[in-house]
Amino acid sequence: MKKFEEETIHTEKIYDGKVVKLQVDDVILPNGKKSKRELIKHPGAVGIIPITKDKKIVFVEQYRKPLEKTLVEIPAGKLEAGEKPEITAIRELEEETGYTTNSLQFVASFYTSPGFADEIMHLYITDNIVPLEHEVAGDDDEFVELIELTLQEAIQYVKEQRIHDAKTNYAVLYLQTLERM
């Protein structure tokens, strides 16, 4: 066994939902003791940083039930089975914003909550967005409003915690870093 690796000796499936699967694993720790790990299995997701011709970032504002509040976020969504992240990124951009692009640049991939979930987020950026000619139907249970902000306005939203999720904070920090280089 590797230095920090835990050996799974039993897995109990708890829930198999539309977005996540929950399980509890019994493990043997590196020191030989037993423990339990509560895990969330997730298919992965994408986030997109769409930038308009006049250098504004397109965000969506939406209500987040787990937080019982509204957040301003970059467009994002869950990978469908077998779907490449680039395809998901364009689909989510179209569904959530009414824009499309033929030019995506990969930024990074990162785990969102590695202490209990395996969700990986793939982040893309595009500064070549154009309005769709025809509206694309989004999810029936998703209600969003577009907000276009300058980088400085986005930084202020972070300070005010109107932007308060990891992927969007990452996106704003990434753009802020680009400005300094």
TrEMBL record:
Enzyme Commission code(s) on record: 3.6.1.13
Keywords annotated in UniProt: Hydrolase
Stored InterPro entries: Nudix_hydrolase (IPR020476), NUDIX_hydrolase-like_dom_sf (IPR015797), NUDIX_hydrolase_CS (IPR020084), NUDIX_hydrolase_dom (IPR000086)
Class of the enzyme per the UniProt entry, highest EC level: hydrolase
Record-annotated Nudix hydrolase domain positions: 41-171
Cofactor list: Mg(2+)
CDD domains according to UniProt: NUDIX_ADPRase_Nudt5_UGPPase_Nudt14 (cd03424)
The keyword Transmembrane is annotated on this UniProt entry: no
Gene3D superfamilies to which the protein is assigned, alphabetical: Nucleoside Triphosphate Pyrophosphohydrolase (3.90.79.10)
Gene Ontology molecular functions: ADP-ribose diphosphatase activity
UniProt similarity note: Belongs to the Nudix hydrolase family.
Protein name per Swiss-Prot or TrEMBL: ADP-ribose pyrophosphatase
Species this chain originates from: Virgibacillus litoralis
